[in-house]
Each structure stands twice: as C-alpha cells, then as structure tokens.
Specification:
- The longest helix has 20 residues.
- The two termini are about 15 Å apart.
- Helices cover about 35% and strands about 15% of the residues.
- Helix 2 crosses helix 10, helix 4 crosses helix 12 and helix 10 crosses helix 11.
- The strands form four sheets. It has a five-stranded mixed beta sheet with strand order 8-7-9-6-10.
- By secondary structure, it is an alpha/beta fold.
- The radius of gyration is 20 Å and the shape is globular.
Length: about 350
C-alpha cells in the first residue's frame, strides 16, 4: 500500500532541500542521510509534547506500535495548547495536533507547516467539547442572551472554542462583543464555572466527562448540538522541514496514527481506561473519542475552517485552498495525495486485520 512513486519523488526533493540547507549552514538535528527509507534499526525521533490528553501518539506508544518502527516519539514535556502550532513551526516540535484553524492561520502568516493526517470526529456520544454553567446560574439554552456581560472560559483563541461558539451565539442574537472571553486550560475550566470565576466554561474531551458527572454543573449542549460535527477534527500538523527531510518516516507515522484511530474505534472502553490512567482520573469521567477512518483528510472539513477564518477576518478571501494547507501524500492508506471531498468517501477501515 506504500506510495512508492510519491516517496521516490519526495525523497529526491528532500535531497535537493538538504543541499540547500547544507549551503546555509544546516541544522545539527537534521544531520544524517535523507529519510527515503524508514529503518527500525536506525530510527528517527520526532519531538512531541507530552500533554495529559486523549492523544493518539501516547496510545500508539502504549500499544507498542512504535516498537519496531523507523520513527519514534521523543517527548519534550507538557506544552501549553496555544503554543503547539507555533512550536511546530519553529521546529521545537515536529508534530502536533490542534484545530485546523490554527495551522491555517499560521500558514497564512508564512509558517512552514502542513496538515498530514485527519483525527477525531464529533458524534452525539463522542462530542469534542461541552458547554457548562452552574446549576443555579439561571442560564439555559433558551436564554443565551444572559451571557452578555458575563465571562466565558475557553482553552484559547483562534480555534473551535472561540469560533464555533461565537458563530452559534451570534445566530441566536447574542452580542458576542459584550462577553468577556478568558483563556483557561481545560484542566481548570470546571473549577472556574463551579466557583463562579466563569459563568460558562467550554470544556474539551476527555476532561468534559468529569464535569458531566459534577452535580453542581449543567451541560447546556455539546458542539455536535451546535453544528452536527461540521467543524471537524483537530488534525495532525507536521513541521515542513521535518516531513520533507524524512518522508518515509512521516508516512510510517501517519500509518501508525491511522491504525491507532481504528483501534480506538474498535476498543473505546479500553482506550478510555488507558487515558484515565494517563490523566489520573476515574474512567467514568473520561469522555469517549471517535475517529475518522484511516487518518485520511477530506477537503470539506479543512474548507470549513478556511471559510470561518475568512468570516472572522483572519485570512483574506481566496488566499488559501484546502490543498494549500493539507495533503494525503504521507498517508499509506490514501489512494492518492489528493484530499477526499468528504468523509463520506472514507467509510471502510483499511487497517482491519493489522496487528
């Protein structure tokens, strides 16, 4: 299933790029032969944030998928979510996973990044984020105008929590400019709404599960209720220099992500147990995650975020297309480098039967 022609051409491009890098002095971290062959006996280590979250790289490591691979994670410690994409651009990280909007904005600003793998999907029983208020707040899904003059805690600006929420509230007649938006880590957002530091907290999985079980809080709705999952997943972004330098290893990495996603879909309870151990919570408080098949990227979800960024004035209209920011070039399960039109074209698990 390996795309050998693509790999050969990419390896040639990597070799040419290497010559240019050498002429400019190069980087010690990128020394060595071009990565046109992924060799378990001489593995490449990619820098990755060791964040407490529902993370495919951690799960793949837990399952032993990197054990005999030519690419392996080198964890660099916890990294603030808002710094993941900027640090992937600088090369302090080689891969990261965040909402596509952040990568698109960075590429629009000149960042050397590429979205290389799709990730989770939003379902009614596997939401990406939930919206919580205190049970005594008086705020309901029917009187959201009461949020004007109030505080909303969210994990950061520029991604799903901000844009999905602002679009929905605006459609409901709420003046979002009258709301105080406060960046708050997911791990602190439940306490914020419980103590009154925020009037509404937007909490992502897996941490939303604990808040759902908190008798003092009420979930008004999830992001699936807002847009039916249209805002899509938080795909995997790669540092441009790294993926050009190590195309075969990048392809193996994306294949491992695809296989891990399918494992989670087939074993949701075991996956929740592993994540519960990772984030040190009871498994009953861990929200389920669901993933697209085979890590294959579709154009519809990427275009959603380009259009959203245009709407909010963050990207000039017509300046970028989905194919400018994302590719299936490094996905061994994809039939071509091109993006699928929608995930409706990706309904078969191609990793079935793999160990």
């Amino acid at each position: 299933m390996k795309k050998t022609l693509t790999r050969a051409l990419t390896a040639l491009a990597a070799a040419v790029a290497l010559l240019g890098t050498a002429a400019c002095g190069g980087s010690e971290e990128l020394s060595g032969p071009p990565g046109d062959v992924s060799d378990p006996k001489n593995p490449v280590y990619f820098k990755y944030a060791d964040n407490p979250s529902f993370d495919l790289v951690y799960l793949a490591d837990k399952l032993g998928y990197f054990q005999n691979a030519g690419i392996k994670p080198k964890y660099v410690g916890a990294v603030d979510a808002n710094q993941l994409i900027p640090l992937t651009d600088t090369g302090d990280l080689d891969f990261s996973t965040r909402m596509a909007s952040l990568t698109i904005s960075a590429i629009n600003g000149g960042a050397d990044l590429k979205i290389i793998a799709a990730s989770n999907r939003t379902l009614p029983d596997a939401p990406h984020m939930n919206y919580f208020v205190h049970k005594d707040s008086g705020i309901t899904a029917e009187n959201l105008n009461k949020l004007e003059g109030k505080t909303i805690a969210m994990n950061g600006f520029g991604a799903c929590a901000e844009y999905v929420t602002k679009q929905y509230l605006s459609k409901k007649g709420v003046d979002v400019d009258k709301i105080n938006w406060v960046p708050t880590p997911d791990t602190q957002s439940e306490q914020a709404v419980e103590t009154g530091a925020s009037d509404l907290s937007i909490i992502h999985a897996p941490f939303s599960g604990h808040a759902l079980n908190n008798p003092d809080l009420v979930s008004l709705f999830s992001d699936f209720d807002l847009d039916g999952g249209e805002s899509g997943s938080q795909p995997y972004t790669g540092n441009g220099e790294f993926i050009r330098r190590f195309p075969a290893q990048t392809e193996e990495f994306v294949g491992i992500l695809g296989k891990t996603q399918s494992w989670v879909n087939r074993n949701p309870d075991q996956a929740r147990q592993y994540i519960a151990e990772r984030v040190k919570q009871d498994v009953k408080d861990i929200t389920r995650y669901a993933y697209v098949n085979n890590a294959i990227i579709d154009r519809k979800q990427i275009q959603y975020w380009i259009d959203t960024l245009v709407t909010f004035g963050q990207v000039p209209e017509g300046s970028l297309t989905a194919d400018d920011v994302a590719t299936n070039q490094y996905n061994p399960y994809a039939k071509s480098d091109q993006l699928l039109e929608t995930q409706a074209d990706n309904q078969v698990d191609l990793t079935a039967g793999e160990k």
